[in-house]
């Protein structure tokens, strides 16, 4: 609604955080949010090392509406944790509240954006403004954010009552009423089975589980009730029966239900009367009853911790525990060995990441490692060979059987200029003159847009003019991202190192494709997440267990034919027509299928 003054909330929240810091050893779970719960209860829960937040639906405010025509604008003063949806237990005391004097400063927003503001209007003759039903409604919205995660809600009841609130929108200093809205103190939960409001002291538990019945009996003396409930019904076998999701807990001397619980989704809701000695009751309930009802939210429950002592161990437990510890030691040992392998592997192949991330000397050295892996026998770092040379030289020189390959490489934030691409041509002409022969091949390699992930870069990174100029100048162009992908295509057997080495001396923009490919089809229909596709072929023989190639965005991968079907009938081979193809690996839309020609 935008009717909250953040000042008291932030102050209270900070205070709560500071209180938590003082308790050095608390159990992270369950997280407990106490709303208007007596401070003795909160302190007792903290003493038991529970993780506790103390909040409020809001304090009642004494408003000086002293005469007709007097009114005041107020802001809500509730205080809930920002991460209420992460809490496991919410405890509310609907009959516990404080009343504060009106303080104008507490009802002014210190930080406000926008040209209008909402507030709540308290008019004469109202002298006590009660924000709690509206706070309860807001709490209800927060509780819905918990969703289906299991949790427990405990409410100590009060008389059910409604209040009307008038919200006011102020723009340019002029207030405008936004109408009335009615809220109930029980709005924190929808569909509460409320009945008549009654007050009394004589109560007895229903015939319920023994431990809970004994607990209630221990604290009903000097306790009071103020609200009764009905037991909802549901239709079953053409008749209404009591809804089994509701469990009456306590009744008064007239037989009215004064305490009830509800199982809703994965959660339990308990409506208790005003129990005496709440701190002891809550302690017993949360340590003895609740962990048995919802053990998942009590990972550190110690109710039966004595069972873990050796004298109470079950048969075979000692042997199984010893075997478990042995497995854990072996696991830790194997993890360390595998981590060492991963580290060694990362170091050995770091050059592959460096060619698509680095620039300068690091890029040069990484490319030298790459070309040596590719099978070139003599690869030279020219700057290291001639460290004091003032003449512009290539970065890398590769010795070939029929000449040399000179390489200029750059790592840049954008894409290459025409001069970047053509610089290697000048060096090529000089090397030809020095050697007095035309056996010099030139290659420009770029790690372009190196601050972006390679798949997000402009690929290929060369303009059509740059490609044509490279053909005219008899030099090659390639990106490090191409080299990175070539590594895996070579390792998987799609390309041969020798073919890649030979292609590096070609002119223009270099592309690498497997040779002797036969086109199968570009499937238009994909099923079973891409592991089945529909193809239409003409005079292309395919058979089960045959390995084929998949091209996507210029990259090739292998897959194997696992099944062929026509009209839902399996066949072992095919040559012409429309068929379903089951593949060992899923393929994506717009993938092209190839097979290698039989030489």
Distance between the termini: 77 Å
The dominant shape is elongated
Low-confidence stretches: 6-24
Arithmetic mean of pLDDT: 90
Helical amount among residues, as a percent range? 25-40%
Rg over CA atoms: 39 Å
Number of domains: 4
Strand order of the largest sheet: 2-1-5-9-17-16-15-12
Treating each run of at least 4 consecutive H or I residues as one helix, how many helices? 13
Number of strands: 33
Strand content: 25-35%
Largest β-sheet summary: 8 strands, mixed
Class computed from helices, strands and strand pairing:
alpha+beta
Can you walk through the features of this model?
- There is one protein chain.
- This protein is α+β, with helices and mostly antiparallel strands.
- The chain folds into four domains: 1-190, no CATH class; 313-348; 350-509, 3-Layer(aba) Sandwich (Restriction Endonuclease); 517-596, Elongation Factor Tu (Ef-tu), domain 3 (Beta Barrel).
- It is 28% helix and 29% strand.
- The protein contains 13 helices and 33 strands.
- An eight-stranded mixed beta sheet has the order 2-1-5-9-17-16-15-12. Strands 24, 25, 26, 28, 29, 30, 32 and 33 form an eight-stranded antiparallel beta sheet that branches. The protein has a six-stranded mixed beta sheet with strand order 18-19-20-21-22-23, with helices on both faces.
- A hairpin with a 2-residue loop joins strand 13 (233-236) and strand 14.
- Helix 2 (39-47) crosses helix 5 (278-293).
- The longest helix is centred in the middle third of the chain and has 32 residues, at 317-348.
- It is elongated and about 115 Å long.
- It starts with 5 loop residues before the first helix and ends with a strand.
- Mean pLDDT is 90; it is low at 6-24.
